[in-house]
Amino acid sequence: xxxxxxxYICTSCGTVHKKWAGRCENCGEWNTITEDAGTxxxxxxxxxxxxxxxxxxxxxSAEEAPLPRQLSGLDELDRVLGGGLVPASATLVGGDxxxxxxxxxxxxxxxxxxxxxxxxxxxxxxxxxxxxxxxQRLGLADAPVKLAAETNLRDILTTLEAExxxxxxxxxxxxxxxxxxxxxxxxVSQVRAAAHELVSFAKRRGVSVMLVGHVTxxxxxxxxxxxxxxxxxxxxxxxxxxxxxxxxxxxxxxxxPADEIGVFExxxxxxxxxxNPSALFLSERGQASGSVVFAGIEGxxxxxxxxxxxxxxSPLATPRRTVVGWDSGRLAMILAVLEARxxxxxxxxxxxxxxxxxxxxxxxxxxxxxxxxxxSARQDHALPEGTVVFGEISLSGALRPVPQAEARLRExxxxxxxxxxxxxxTRRTGxxxxxxxxxxxxxxxxxxxx
Length: 450
Ligand code: TYD
Ligand code: MG
Prior knowledge:
Helix 7 crosses helix 8. This protein is of the alpha/beta class. The mean pLDDT is 89. The strands form 4 sheets. Strands 6-5-7-8-4-9-10-11-12 form a 9-stranded mixed beta sheet, sandwiched between helices. Helix content is 25%, strand content 25%. Thymidine-5'-diphosphate (TYD) binds at residues 95, 97-103, 134, 137, 266, 268-270. One of its GO terms (molecular function) is zinc ion binding. This is DNA repair protein RadA. ATP binds at residues 95-102.
């Protein structure tokens, strides 16, 4: 007889715990662990009656020919997906409430529908009339998108079975409700069950699904992370409140490069694509100490952005280290290397680091730009105008070359920069489009710059 055990599950990351705790050991979030009714039935004891079918790898071409990828015409979205929507794929679009997920997906629905694909947009949050109103405001009044306001999963699957669209958008997965699961809508079991049903429907019927997932702060509603492992592609829609810029980032993609970004601007008439993000991220830049332009690579594109540092005497016993848009552990490392290898100390000082424009930089290639910004702020000495910086820093204080130097230099040249600071030994062929200062170790770099 099956034992009736209660388990506890983290609504943020989906980790199962034996006991309730205030903080999840896996993801470190507080108050996210809830009791889980559990749907797990006992493992099957006997073999099934019917056989699963296998296909020779070499015979795959003989199977029904795979459909080509579908382009939406929204270039930023197509690129983040890895070159268009893959048929029968499952995509999760996560993001904070109010960031613009529904707007993005309704625009995507309109674009796909206009390019000839059948699209069903299921909203569990708004009535069909409200979605239509929003669509009109976005200039999609004539797009042949089919709308449904529904939360019952069984009904949705029946609709999709009848319609057999090329793309089904589910907004949002947290509002979906599977009647074979006991727990409340939004719980981890419900969200997982709904995602599982929708993803297996997608694979079985050749319908692509896009699931919207709200990033939640309170513990009762499951976050998008609990379904990340079930889908092929995970996109996060990010941006800062008060800023119109939005970044769509692929954090997982079975069909394309991860870390690819698409940049949008939220306007009165919906999201507008930003074709030249470098110009956008640098548009509000002033020439001051602590400001450095980093020549980065996001996915397959070079993107220039401004890194700002502020260093000020601290009244606190433990000075503040505040980071926006970069890893705080990495900042601690750079501060330690500057102190130990170049003798530039930050003890007794508050350090603030910010990547302008709401971008999140993950590349180690930003090390040198961060170090330069910190030194520039610390010495109150601005970098010469028209300079870009990139390179990795090792714990020994040596600078390491980073890949794709040429693409970075070309992008910098295109935006009017005329000088680059980078590690010596950086591989590049052909003439440099701008003057290049190669540096080899940290104290030497500090001297050469300031
Ligand atoms: P929405 O797509 O509803 O967010 P989400 O689905 O992620 O919760 O977007 C909500 C915000 O976007 C709202 O604050 C208003 C803004 N917005 C515009 O600025 N312009 C527009 O054309 C639209 C439709 C929304
Ligand atoms: Mg929404």
